[in-house]
Write a structure and sequence with these properties.
The chain is α+β, with helices and mostly antiparallel strands.
Length: 224
């Protein structure tokens, strides 16, 4: 036989919970007062370390904010814009033709001269300069620039909107396994895979897919 609950019963339950909560909060406050100065300092340090580690994990595996430097991706991206690059799309698939990506160039250190720090075979911190480019060739593709025009697998790839043709010829090359060809949308002013000191880049040099311009707020938009 069920007993019908009365409004007063619910109020009593709430009152008991609130009293328990206040007691617990008071105990926690008293415990905090009893901590020594070194204990309090270590507590703050632990919180800071935890926040830094969480930020590092997010940056390494989930997303990264990157500032566009220069005009190599105009008119898709403008100099000084802050873009959001997601790393999750490449957890389960490889970069595709047409993706705008953030990447490293082979052997390129950043302006401070720091290269990657290897902790193990699968974990490293890479301080190399990050570039924003578009993937135009993936493993297995045949790529050629002829007469100032880009061809992939024999098909003409139209020049990006409002941009001129590539000013020089290149190839024909065949991209091997784990090779990707990246160029800037503003091909007249882009240092990319067409140059001998860059060339095709490996899969692990591609860090994430640019999905959105975040800043300035007035220019916020999706990136295609």
């Amino acid at each position: 036989m069920q007993t019908e609950k009365k409004p007063g019963d619910q109020q009593n339950i709430f009152a008991r919970y609130w009293a328990w909560h206040k007691k617990r909060a008071a105990a926690a406050k008293e415990k905090e007062k009893q901590k020594t100065i070194p204990q309090k300092i270590w507590g703050w340090v632990a919180v800071i370390i935890e926040a830094v580690l969480i930020a590092m994990v997010i940056r390494m595996f989930v997303l990264e904010l990157v500032r566009v430097d220069g005009e190599s991706m105009c008119n898709t991206l403008q100099d000084g814009e802050i873009v959001l690059a997601m790393k999750t799309p490449y957890w389960t698939q490889n970069p595709q033709r047409g993706d705008v990506v953030i990447c490293h160039y082979p052997g390129r250190m950043n302006e401070r001269g720091w290269g990657p720090i290897n902790f193990s075979a699968s974990f490293r911190l890479d301080f190399s300069t990050i570039f924003v480019k578009r993937v135009v060739g993936v493993p297995g593709d045949y790529l050629q620039i002829s007469g100032g025009h880009l061809y992939v697998n024999g098909e003409l790839v139209p020049d990006p909107e409002n941009m001129g043709s590539v000013p020089s010829d290149y190839g024909l090359i065949h991209l091997e396994d784990d090779q990707y060809f990246v160029v800037g949308d503003n091909r007249l002013y882009s240092h990319d895979s067409r140059y001998s000191d860059v060339g095709p880049i490996s899969r692990d040099a591609i860090l994430g897919k640019v999905t959105r311009v975040l800043l300035p707020f007035g220019n916020s938009r999706a990136v295609e």
